[in-house]
Amino acid sequence: MKKGRSFASSHACIAVLAIxxxxxxxxxxxxxGGDYAVSLAxxxxxxxxxAVSYNLVYGYLGEISFGHAAFFGVGAFAVPLLAQRGWPFGxxxxxxxxxxxxxxxxxSVILRRTRGVYYAVLTFVLAQVVYVVAIKWTDFTGGDNxxxxxxxxxxxxxxxxxxxxxxxxxxxxxxxxxAIHSPAGHVIQAIRQNERRATQxxxxxxxxxxxxxxxxxxxxGIAGALYSPFIRFVSPDVLFWTFSGQVIIMAIMGGSGxxxxxxxxxxxxxxxxxxxxxxxxxxxVIAGIPVARLGEHWPLFMGLLFFLxxxxxxxxxxxxxxxxxxxxxxxxxxxxxxxxxxxxxxxPGSNLEERR
Amino acid sequence: MTGQxxxxxxxxxxxxxxxxxxxxxxxxxIFGMMNVLNFTHGVLYAxxxxxxxxxxxxxGNFWFALVAAPACVAxxxxxxxxxxxxxxxxxxxxIQFLATYGVALVIEQVIRIVxxxxxxxxxxxxxxxxxxxxxxxxFPAYRVFIVAAATFVCVALGALLxxxxxxxxxxxxxxxxxxxALLRVxxxxxxxxxxxxxxxxxxxxxxxxxPIFSVYPSMGEELITVAFLVVTAGGLGSVGGTILxxxxxxxxxSLGLLAVGKYSDVLAISxxxxxxxxxxxxxxxGWRRA
Lengths: 356, 290
Description:
The complex is a heterodimer. By secondary structure, chain A is mainly alpha-helical.
């Protein structure tokens, strides 16, 4: 555990710069060839912010939120709804942050005494309340038809929007990184490891839990606010629970034990999703099933991959990279240890293993 | 708003609640047994409906489908328990919850690959074509059957758990699995049995719902919301709470239609969310920290 964390934080600045600039370079390099790569990079950057802020709750606080689509969706809706009321784009973006925080604050009041499975289900249910209201309140949200979202003229070109997103997300990630490595951030991790002890030391754990949730919700709100202008459209689909499921998959696949772990998950998720979707155009037939028919069923492969990662490598891609780094000999020994273990202490970065 | 329409809506709500009861009872039983919230429950409900459609169309016999579909889904439940729950039993329960989420994604897509994205209408068995009249109020016969079936299942389940040897074993294992194992109870087999039974209940709900709502791929992901809501509002693992919460949410959705029109879903779901403000662990979950 400790090892994974210190590795993550000592290389934090390098990692964030590297990943940010890779996405940027990828986007720019392909801009001449077409907008596809730019759009792919932009999506990865936006969802990265969402997944990292999600991981505050999952990886650092140790609770599963199944309702993070609510904050992302509220942020996504904030932009067109505030723009309709004459707010400039920058303020509308800030509105995503504010409304994400407000919704998270309201939820954390209800969540104050819940833990574990109840926490997961209650976040699920509360986010569904937001979804049901949004889909029924057609005058306000456009219901099933959704709302068109426009960008200001100076951000209209995909390349410019990609750059803009990258700048905002890098700043936001730096802020999140700073927050989680502050003294308060350490308290949050202490709560995950042993909440009773944290209480005994004198921390008001409910306040810290709420704080984590609100910060997570606020930054998810920014991610949402960047997302709807990116796809130029928003509908209540971004509030539905299956969307919350996607961020869980991304964060865990990447690796919840390291601050930047979710970034790897987002990249894998988005690239894999697009790759499988592109099968729709292929003419290959495997075992009597035309591959083209599988294209739209990418969640099948995502679910399978997620399941395998949960079972065999709870530390996600970060854990797999770690094994490769340590070399194959020790990796084999490690695999033996994992198979034989009863408590998962030998498994760095799998937060959920700590508390049973 | 006449008295008659209120009675009608109340009855419609009761029949919808009956389906919720069947599905949620399975979910809450599984939770009470192994402390795992089973995310595949929604797709098992959908699978039940699809198998029901398949058997009803192949044999032309709705009664056969009513028995065969839950049996098939129970077998699938056994496979899920052996692949996604049992191997992870040494780890945190939330890990099992997430693993079943992965399995649910896979099953839903398999349904879509096999059956396509279309919805299938299921013909009402001819016995239930008419309606029953009580005074001036007429109740659709099939809905009466659903209510009766759910009531029967509740009573039978109560008898099974309270009066039989297998029921005693189930209670023993969910109360204290280690002690039960020491007494040479095959706890693994009991868990598998409960999981299969819970899956069969979800499937039964699916078959019964099919003639009313028809059969479509996203039916599972819609129902799981209600099922989660019901079992947590009732207090996870509590049978009484599950039945009560099903009735409240079914009636709020149905009677609410008269009061607040299209916002009845909002009313139902908000009512349940309000329960959590007062009782974080559900109505019968007490004040303990979950």
